[in-house]
Design a protein that fits this description.
Layout: E1 2-5, E2 8-10, H1 29-42, H2 45-56, E3 61-63, H3 64-71, H4 75-87, E4 91-96, E5 99-104, H5 106-116
Antiparallel strand pairs: 1-2, 3-5, 4-5
């Protein structure tokens, strides 16, 4: 047993050797680009809050005005975040008169999960 770092014991495995194995197949280049765009879109606190608020909405959709009130942000700021999420294919936008309504594209989120974390598909339902 090596010296504990911050109270956590570290197992000494210096006598064991790494045995190379096949790590699997790489993700297709086009899929990687799509996944990168989607993950970057989700990697923002405000955008995560937007997706969460839409998910929690009783009808599964929210108007821009609902989001600006909930997030206490200016409409142009919220619209910029919504544009990023929509361009990444994670949200669906529907124009109703002067207002835009947004809902989650569950197929896109499932695809993101399937391609980014394929082993996790069998572990838990989504």
């Amino acid at each position: 047993m090596a010296t504990p770092l911050a109270g956590i014991p570290i197992e000494d495995v210096s006598e064991e050797h790494c045995v190379p194995c096949s790590p699997g197949l790489l993700i297709d280049r086009e899929e990687v680009e799509t996944l990168t765009i989607q993950l970057k879109a989700m990697a923002d606190q405000t955008r995560l809050q937007i997706v969460h608020l839409i998910d929690q909405a009783p009808a599964g959709e929210l108007c821009v005005c609902d989001l600006t009130d909930s997030l206490d942000l200016a409409q142009p700021t919220v619209s910029r975040h919504l544009k990023i999420l929509t361009a990444a294919g994670l949200l669906r936008r529907e124009q109703r008169g002067t207002w835009a309504w947004f809902s989650i594209r569950w197929d896109a989120l499932q695809g993101l999960r399937k391609h980014a974390f394929p082993r996790g598909i069998d572990c838990s339902p989504f």
